[in-house]
Amino acid sequence: MSKIVNFFMLCTLLFALCLAAEAQQPRKIPLIGRLTGGSPSNSPARLEAFRQGLRELGYVEGENIVIEYRFAMGNFDRLPDLAAELVRLKVDVIVAQSSDPVRAATNATKTIPIVMVQAGDPVGNRFIDSLARPGGNVTGLTTFSNELAGKRIELFKEAFPKIRRLAVLWNQISPGSGLSLKQTESAAQSLGLQLQVLSLRGAKDFETAFSAIRREGADAILVLPDSSFFQNRIPILEFAARNRLPTMYPHSEFLNDSGLMSYGTYYPDLNRRAATYVDKILKGAKPADLPVEQPKKFELVINLKAAKQIGVTIPPTVLMEADKVIK
């Protein structure tokens, strides 16, 4: 009998020791990689929105989650190396901001989950199979929206009804940009606008494009979404101001540097929502099974300081539609 009692006591002791050892095991803190083409100062609102989204889900940076940031600082040639660094760190998830970082991340790994933020036309870019069933290791949020190009030109025309000839800046070599241009051309045709389409592959092409705009007498400029335009925004902003040309930009951060008008996806909302993908993946969900979401929130921002600088007046009806007016 005593042997049986001793046996049970031993089992109980061993069980208690196992529980104690398990309790003492440090819980693995998730490691997230954040890959961005720009710099921390370019889009602080987006980074803060992502952190806020994590906090809402119970993650506190530096406590129960760690984020490794990699910024290309405008030099997109660095993105492959930065993506490879995150892979070597064995991060649990890579959050890639915009199409170029997503491409670098997908080239670097086919196993680590990738959450894309602000990626344009992810199907056309071949990041995913479809929005509903992404397949592979990529999911997240896209900036693609069928009605965006039409609404952008409609608002621009409403603000400046005398526009007849519109110069359009786009990046021909950027995958997915063709769809944005096609939608723009369709919307312009319905409004009776003549387009002067200018393809820029980088800052070296700006002067050629600017000369063509002056030569052909465009009334205004429309800048299509492309990360390289934002990285090289100052020459565009200065040309528009110097030549007193109303210009519509794809998102509001251009207006922080004296841009006139923007209409587009509200990027902080996408970044906040990206945190939900990270949370689901950390809890075991597979990227292939998480549908890609399209933008839900858009914003019209108008800079009255810039309007005064180039001598134009924004109609009150358009100002009433604006989500934000910079005075």
Write the layout of secondary structure elements.
Blueprint: H1 2-24, E1 31-36, H2 44-56, E2 66-71, H3 79-88, E3 93-97, H4 99-108, E4 114-119, E5 138-142, H5 148-159, E6 165-170, H6 177-190, E7 194-199, H7 206-216, E8 220-223, H8 227-231, H9 233-242, E9 247-249, E10 261-265, H10 267-282, E11 298-303, H11 304-310, H12 316-321, E12 324-326
Parallel strand pairs: 1-2, 1-3, 3-4, 4-5, 6-7, 6-8, 8-9, 9-10, 11-12
Antiparallel strand pairs: 10-11
Helix pairs in contact: 2-10, 3-4, 5-6
Descriptive account of the structure:
It is a single chain. It contains twelve helices and twelve strands. The protein is an alpha/beta fold and 327 residues long. The protein has two domains: 31-144 and 266-298, 3-Layer(aba) Sandwich (Rossmann fold); 148-264 and 299-326, Rossmann fold (3-Layer(aba) Sandwich), CATH 3.40.50. The chain has a seven-stranded mixed sheet with strand order 7-6-8-9-10-11-12, with helices on both faces. The longest helix is centred in the N-terminal third of the chain and has 23 residues, at 2-24. Residues 21-25 have low confidence and may be disordered.
Question: Quick one: CATH class of the largest domain?
Answer: Alpha Beta
Instruction: Quote the CATH topology of the largest domain.
Output: Rossmann fold
What about the largest sheet?
A: 7 strands, mixed
How far apart lie the N and C ends?
Answer: 89 Å
Note the total helix count.
12
Quaternary organisation of the protein chains: single chain
Compact overview of the structure:
This protein has 327 residues and is α/β, with parallel strands linked by helices.
